[in-house]
Design a protein that fits this description.
The protein is an alpha+beta fold and 152 residues long. The chain has a domain of 103 residues. 32% of the residues lie in helices and 11% in strands. The strands form three sheets. The chain has a two-stranded antiparallel ribbon with strand order 1-4. Strands 2-3 form a two-stranded antiparallel sheet. Strand 2 and strand 3 form a beta hairpin. The longest helix has 14 residues.
Length: 152
Amino acid sequence: MPSAKTVQALATALRLPADELLELRWTADAARTEEGPGRPVKEWEPHDLEVHPAGYSTLAPDSTGAGMRVLPGYVRRAHGQVLESAARDAAAGRSGIVVLVGSSSTGETRACWEAVQPLAGHGWQLWHPFDPTRPRPPWTNCTGSGRERSCG
């Protein structure tokens, strides 16, 4: 599915009414039924994604009385700011890649978790690094070429 910005640029280049093309895009987007890889960011719990405290886990009371694991407060560091910037760029339609390397329990996964939280309110999907369990990579459902790709 092309972005609204791409449809607008296409309409301008072809001297077509942008409103009509955007309406077609929105109609087609609403009709999509196949889900892409992963699930919405807002549906994940940090522990589902292997986000854990560097030391021992703390339990906080929950509605069942059994307790739930809680993460300590997050201290933003330079690498977290780089990840957050990359997430903002992605949300704005600018692609990129960031490789984060560190020893065990130094905060790489937590920094990634914190960086994607602002995307939750925009319907972004996230999949676990150990997924997909099916024998094909997640991008096999993607169409398009070059910088314009639609997945799902």
